[in-house]
Target: Fumarylacetoacetate (FAA) hydrolase
Amino acid sequence: MKLASYQDGSRDGQLVVVSRDLTQAHYATGIADRLQQVLDDWNFLAPQLQDLYAGLNAGRAPHAFAFDAQRCMAPLPRPRQWLGALAYPSHVQRVHGEGVLPPGGLLAPLYQGGGERLLGAHEALAVPNGRAEPDLGAQLAVVTGEVPQGASPEQALASVRLLVLANAVVLRSLWRREAERGLGPLQALPAIAFGPVAVTPDELGEAWHQGRVHLTLQVDCNGRRIGRCEAGSDMGWHFGELLAQAVATRGAGAGTLLGSGPVSNADPAKGCSCLAERRALEVLDGASGPRTPLLGEGDRVRIEMKLRSGQSVFGAIDQVVVFQG
Amino acid sequence: MKLASYQDGSRDGQLVVVSRDLTQAHYATGIADRLQQVLDDWNFLAPQLQDLYAGLNAGRAPHAFAFDAQRCMAPLPRPRQWLGALAYPSHVQRVHGEGVLPPGGLLAPLYQGGGERLLGAHEALAVPNGRAEPDLGAQLAVVTGEVPQGASPEQALASVRLLVLANAVVLRSLWRREAERGLGPLQALPAIAFGPVAVTPDELGEAWHQGRVHLTLQVDCNGRRIGRCEAGSDMGWHFGELLAQAVATRGAGAGTLLGSGPVSNADPAKGCSCLAERRALEVLDGASGPRTPLLGEGDRVRIEMKLRSGQSVFGAIDQVVVFQG
Model:
């Protein structure tokens, strides 16, 4: 099923069920008001939402209305936490260098992000200024139920309730400065925007396989193609492995978000899901150094993922960059 | 006023108002069920709780009952986020080295922590094992209302709603490994325990001054004195400065926690608020190297802060270490 949180003046938004084709919606009132409630009591509430979803898709929901992605907040506007992975080795090698990959390659690069400043799909992307070197970070993230401390990758994978589309913006100059100090990124992570709807993994059919999403992530900037990367093929660790690593020493509560990091493929012809990686490829390409600028005021970022049928899975992230400082 | 969250089988607990002398309590039912609700709507709800608190202190609350710290969860069991500072330069120099202090000393060492595995004051302190080098981290933390992006230190300080007592455990061997990779601590931060009650800053009277708490933090391990550090005098940045740094590029929601890091004084005779610092002082002291072990199975940690009158501010953290792995 597909779920969204409509703006209603509250911090958590109003839960709506959205039809598979993203044209119709229905308030979940009577079942749950907020998505966090559903995550807290999934086994009881999700089947009721699933019934409503089936009715909506069949044109049998009595109070359905036209779905408007402009009214969406992030699907989970106040998550328990955001865990950031860098799960694509080709991205890590091109942008961060091998240093963040621990010896042996068993552990994934993983950091604790904040659960703040979550944006809806069409909200302006406010960043401090160009000197901070703002960059997009197109990726998928999972939304979990409870993940107990010490869960195995398989147990952790079974805790995945929903998938979301995300643009986790990075301020590259601050990232480098904070990485040098060893305390990890904090100011470097200004905002995360989300696609309009969250979907249960069964919506992806066979494309959800062994903890990876085998579909193409479409990333454009100002109408120009930045990337058409395959999200599944080159993901170094699957979502269950990433979650298990995160809960090695402490459990994660229902409503935890874990993002894959910018999707990337070994084949540079697929493009990229962030601009720093594109610039790194331009440097490797020789000649005159990087040509693609990082994000500038007024730039428009568009991110979407479609099924093989052409149906948009999450709806699109479509945002304009605004400088604030 | 003083507030606590009683265990009631829910993830958020049941809000209770606690008398100043920590002997009596009263459910806040009818005003708010959960502390997060109060933080979301502080100006409307806090005065109502204050009235109940005044009645409780005066012996005029009709359904008061004996306060039992054993029944307390963390005062805010599901906070928006945990921001970890290392705000005491003497602690940083002795334990982490100068590397985490940026040039010029203007910025504080600050990291994004997780908001998970928050423990009540008497819950067992579960850590993986001794090889992870578990250490305590006795400190104060503030609980905020909304802190807008770009808030000044004064604005950020005005957002402080409550103070809490915390033991943010660190796994030292994992911290070093994660710091080397530049992504910051994640597995190194297993659990944070909290004193039974959260208090509004006015409870501290003159001891709350210019964003610092001028009282002594008492830290004992197995009945032995570890530290009697002054929390105010050597704090390199006050809580408003730390919060302002954290919101430079993104706002923080109501219910954000920011911890000061282990309290420490330049004068080593005051002792320490973590064991790694004590070991570092033992090394500096010459002779035979560090004598104090890090936390071991069955160790008992006790942390408390008292007013000059002898009244306990937050109640005590009193926990026993349990190895899990």
